Structures are given as C-alpha cells and as structure tokens.
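In response to reviewer comment 3 from the previous cycle, which asked for concrete evidence that the modeling workflow produces usable outputs, we include below a single protein chain processed end to end. The sequence was submitted unchanged, and the resulting structure tokens are shown without manual editing.
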Amino acid sequence: MFFMALRKVVVIAGPTASGKSQLAVDVARACRGVVINADSMQVYPDTPVLSAIPSAAERGGIEHCLYGVFPSSKNGTVVEWLVLAAGEIRRIWSEGKLPVVCGGTGLYIDNLINGTTPIPEAEPEVRYKVAEAAAAEGIPALHARLLTVDAVTADRLSPNDSTRVKRALEVFYQTGVPLSAWHRRPMVQKLPEAEFVTLKILPPMAELDERCARRFDKMMAAGALDEVRRLKAMNLPASLPAMKALGVPELLAFVEGKCSLDEASAQAKLHTRQYAKRQMTWFKNKLAADIVLDSCYKGSPEEREKVIFDVKKRL
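The workflow returned the following structure tokens.
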C-alpha cells in the first residue's frame, strides 16, 4: 500500500510542449492526486486550444483545478494565483490527497516554493489614477515621474514598459513606499508548512522545437483561428495577458488582414520556440529539482514507471 506524508506537494515544471500535463495526470493517478495549474495563460478560459488547457479526455478522470479561473478581461497577478493555489492545496490535503502543481510559469512556481514579496495590491481608484495619467501623458512621462520617487526601479525599466512602469507607480501611490524598497523586504511564504517534491523537464532544444511546431499545427486543426476570432470580438485591450498568449497576436494579425496565414503560423512557431528556450534557461538555472528528466515526457510504460517510482520514494 502507498503511504504519503500529509504536507507533500509535487511540482512538475518545464517548457511548453515538454509533456508536463500528461506527466501530472500519470503522477496524480498513481498517488491519489489532484492537478493544480501553474501556467499564467491557462488561468484564462477563452483560449483553451492555444494555451493547451488539458481537455476532458487528456485529464483522464483526474481532478484539475485553477484552469480558466480569471476572466480574459482581467490581469491576474501571481499573488492572486498564490492565494487560490494555497487554498486548493490545503483543501486537497484535507481530503487525504496529493497536490500536483503543474506549469511552465517560473514566477508562479518560484513564489509558491520560495515565497513572495509582500507588496499590497493597489486599490481600484489608484489604478484608475495611474491609467488616466498614462492615457493623458504617455508612458515615457510616467517613467520620468517614477524616476523622481523610485530611481532604482525606473533605472531598470524601459521608458516604454507600460505594464511595469504603471505597476511601480501604483505601488508607490498606494503605500508611499517605493517598489524597490518592497523588494528588499523578507519573502513571505503562503504555505510555510509545505514539503515540496520538485520535478523539471529539460529536453534537448531540437526535440522541443519539433514538438512545439507539431503541436501548433494540431492547434490550428483544433480551431485555434476561431478561438482568436472570438477573442477579437470581445474587444479587449491588447495589453491584457490573454491577448498576449502564444499564437494570439500572430493569428490576430492574419484575422485583421495584416499578413497571410502562413506568415502568421511561421511567426507563432518562431515565438513559441523563443519562449520555450527562455523557459528552459530559467528552469535550468533558477529551479532546484529533486528529479530531472532530460527528454520530453511521452508516457511510455517504462518511463511512467520510473518517474512514479522516483516521486513515490520522496513522498
């Protein structure tokens, strides 16, 4: 019989198209687990194909949570995700099951394991004030204003980095404390009682490139273009995360008549490859792991048996 410590959390991390979702299902099935999403694009519901949210068939009867939890009109933050993830992990523990966190967003995983800077969220009126100033004056002007109240943060940001410049000003206006000072404060863990078992997938780039290209072709066949057309009809600001999901800007350019479908697909594949390479670099250098797979997970019986054995002996 399989026994598990009550405060264990399995984390499965790796670049896009590396087989994380299938591995998470296999581990969850073998260990009475529940899969928790840790992908910053899969938290939005309107691009299930392009963001590769596991389908009902791919979930294989295993409970999945935190997929599609934020509306596409929202800019979900890592702090909001952490609150939800901590709640789900404690619920899963209370049911005597194993949380299996799965995703490719390093920020989510790092903050879950190592803690997060305790920066308060800005009130709506503060966000409105900053947004109004950005619309009236432009982002370079806001960057110049940031320079006077938080030179450290301003120096590391581009004058045209709309999202981060506005965020830094929001923090200062909300708290009176520069963002750079907040970053020097001790990290706060949402789950100090958790014991993490971490697994990362680091395949050769040639293998990953081929899988990324093949998966995009499958996404196109599964209705990715219709997904983008529906998203366009929602008239959302281009600055929102849901509008920046891999494949969305490129296919949107085709829908708007700015390029051919072949050109859009080629650009989407290129940008997916570049993103996967950045993920690989981050996971290789920043995430310590108990178990490392040196090729994409394909779910063969031998591969599955070995990984599950390695996971179980750490639980």
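Residues 278 and 312 are 30 Å apart (CA to CA). We consider this sufficient to address the reviewer's concern, and the full set will be provided in the supplementary archive.
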